[in-house]
Design a protein that fits this description.
Largest sheet: 2 strands, antiparallel
Number of helices: 22
Low-confidence stretches: 1-8
Strand content: under 5%
Radius of gyration: 23 Å
Shape: globular
Number of strands: 6
Order of helices and strands: HHHHHHHHHHHEEHHHHEEHEHHHHHEH
Structural class: mainly alpha
C-alpha cells in the first residue's frame, strides 16, 4: 500500500521541468528577438561586457532594422513581417568570434547563461537569428537547472517556490538576454539554501558556505541590491554550522562566543565601504534619500499611488515592450492562486517548519521590505536623468534634486521577483490540505489555463493579423 502511494505521488520536480521547458521555449519563439522588456539594451550590455561591442552595430544594421523590429512599438507595424524577420535573420556575422575582440570583463558573469549559446553560434558562423535563439535557449536551460536545484533544496512550501518560478513574467525573462535570468534563479537558490540550513539536522560545512558565498558574489555583480537576499542566512543559528579550521578551531563557535565583537566588525566594514563609495552615483542618491526623509516619503507615496496598477501588471505579466499586459482579472486570479498555494501545505511540509520561528518571519519580511525600498531609491537616479540634472554634484545637490522630480520612475514589477519566495513563505505557516490530490489538480489547471492565455496574448501581439 505504501509503495502504491509513493508511485502515485505527484512529482513536482518533473512537473516543473516540463512546464518550464514548454512555456519557456514557446515564449522564446513567439516573442521576437529583442522584444522582452529592455532586452535589446541587455543584449548591448552583454556584448560590451564581453568586449564584442562592434557586433552590436552589425546586428542592428543586418538584422534588427531590415526585420522592421524598430517599428514594432510605433503603433504602425503591430505585427511581425515573418518573411523579413526570417530573411534578415538568416544572415551571418561578417567576422568570427575573436574578430570582434571578445575580452570578457567582470560584468560578463551576469550574462554567462546567454553568452554560452550566443557566442557558440557566432563561433560556428550560424545565422544571426539562430545565434540569438541559442542564447535564449541556454539561458532557459540555466534557469531550469538552477531552479530545479532550488526546488529540491527547499525543505517546505515547494509549491510556493514552484509557483513563483513559473509565473509568466519570470518565464518571459528566463528565455531572454536579461540579467534577470541569473538574478532570479540564483536568488531562488539562495533562499532555498537558507531555509534548508535553518531546518535540517546536518551541519552546514565549508563547501556549502563557499558555494553560498560564490552565488552571493555573482548576484552582487549582476544586481547589487539583491545581495540582501543572502542576508537571510542570519536566521540560521550558529549551532547549525561546522566551520572547522584544523582539528580544534571552529569558526562558528568562535563567532558565537564573540558575536558582539563580530557584529561591531561588520558594522565597521559597512561604514568604511559607505565612506569609500560615497562618490558613486547610487550611493549619493541613497544618502540624499536618507537625509531628506520627508521628501523621500512623499515621492514614495506619489509613486505607489500613481503606478500601483502598472507594478501589479509588470510583476505578473506585461510582455514585449510592456505593451501586452494580462488583464486585471488575470492579475486578481494570480494573487488568489498565490494565496491558495501558500495557505495550504502537506502535513510533512508543516512539520518541517517547526524551527522557523515568528522572529525569523518578521526578520525576513523586514528584509524583503528593505529590498523593496532600495529598488525604488536606486531608480531615483533614472528620474534625475530624465529631469536633466548634473550628476557631478555632491550630496547637497542631490538632496535638492529630490525637489525637481515628482515620482520615482523606471521601476517595473519584475524587480520584485527575486525576493518574492522569501517574502511569501514568511507570511504564513499554512494549513494542512485535506486532499493533496485536489490541491495539486487545482494548481495544474491554473498553470495550463494561464499558459494558454499568455501565449495567446503574445501570438496576437506579434503574429496576429
Amino acid at each position: 500500500m505504501e509503495n502504491l502511494e509513493k508511485k502515485n505521488k505527484f512529482n513536482i520536480y518533473l512537473f516543473f521541468i516540463i512546464a518550464a521547458t514548454v512555456c519557456g521555449l514557446l515564449m522564446s519563439v513567439i516573442i521576437p528577438v529583442s522584444q522582452v522588456p529592455d532586452e535589446y539594451t541587455h543584449f548591448e550590455l552583454m556584448l560590451r561586457a564581453y568586449g564584442a561591442e562592434k557586433m552590436y552595430g552589425e546586428d542592428l544594421k543586418a538584422f534588427y532594422r531590415p526585420a522592421g523590429m524598430e517599428s514594432f512599438n510605433s503603433g504602425d507595424a503591430h505585427s511581425v513581417d515573418g518573411d523579413a524577420y526570417i530573411d534578415s535573420g538568416m544572415k551571418s556575422y561578417s567576422e568570427g568570434l575573436f574578430g570582434y575582440g571578445f575580452k570578457p570583463g567582470i560584468t560578463a558573469v551576469r550574462f554567462i547563461p546567454q553568452a554560452v549559446g550566443f557566442f557558440l553560434g557566432v563561433l560556428f558562423r550560424l545565422p544571426i537569428l539562430i545565434c540569438h535563439q541559442l542564447g535564449e535557449l541556454t539561458a532557459l536551460i540555466f534557469y531550469i537547472l538552477i531552479c530545479l536545484i532550488a526546488l529540491k533544496k527547499m525543505p517546505f512550501k515547494k509549491e510556493v517556490l514552484c509557483f513563483i518560478m513559473l509565473m509568466p513574467m519570470a518565464m518571459q525573462e528566463a528565455a531572454s538576454f536579461s540579467p534577470d535570468v541569473t538574478v532570479n534563479a540564483l536568488c531562488f537558490l539562495l533562499t532555498a539554501m537558507i531555509f534548508d540550513f535553518k531546518v535540517r539536522e546536518k551541519k552546514v560545512g565549508w563547501k556549502e558556505m563557499i558555494l553560498f558565498a560564490i552565488l552571493t558574489g555573482i548576484v552582487l555583480v549582476a544586481k547589487e541590491i539583491y545581495i540582501l537576499v543572502a542576508f537571510g542566512i542570519f536566521i540560521v543559528p550558529l549551532d547549525k554550522f561546522s566551520l572547522k579550521l584544523g582539528e580544534k578551531f571552529d569558526l562558528a563557535v568562535f563567532i558565537k562566543k564573540y558575536r558582539f565583537l563580530f557584529i561591531a566588525v561588520l558594522i565597521m566594514i559597512a561604514v568604511i565601504l559607505g565612506i569609500l563609495c560615497r562618490d558613486f552615483r547610487y550611493v549619493k542618491v541613497l544618502y540624499a534619500a536618507v537625509l531628506q526623509p520627508g521628501r523621500t516619503f512623499l515621492l514614495f507615496k506619489n509613486t505607489l499611488l500613481g503606478y500601483k496598477d502598472f507594478y501589479l501588471q509588470t510583476l505578473v505579466g506585461s510582455f514585449g515592450w510592456l505593451d501586452s499586459a494580462v488583464s486585471y482579472t488575470f492579475v486578481t486570479v494570480f494573487f488568489m492562486m498565490l494565496f491558495f498555494v501558500n495557505l495550504f501545505q502537506s502535513k510533512k511540509s508543516i512539520e518541517l517548519q517547526s524551527e522557523f520561528t515568528t522572529a525569523n518571519r518578521i526578520y525576513l519580511i523586514l528584509l524583503s521590505a528593505a529590498i523593496f525600498v532600495l529598488v525604488f531609491v536606486s531608480m531615483i537616479s533614472w528620474s534625475f536623468y530624465l529631469a536633466g540634472v548634473n550628476f557631478d554634484g555632491g550630496i547637497a545637490e542631490y538632496r535638492s534634486y529630490l525637489y525637481q522630480i515628482d515620482y520615482m520612475l523606471g521601476v517595473q514589477g519584475r524587480y520584485f521577483i527575486p525576493f518574492m519566495p522569501m517574502l511569501i513563505v514568511s507570511l504564513g505557516r499554512g494549513n494542512e490540505a485535506k486532499s493533496m490530490k485536489r490541491y495539486t489538480v487545482i494548481q495544474a489547471c491554473y498553470y495550463v489555463i494561464s499558459m494558454l492565455i499568455v501565449l495567446r496574448i503574445l501570438y496576437v501581439r506579434y503574429w496576429g493579423m
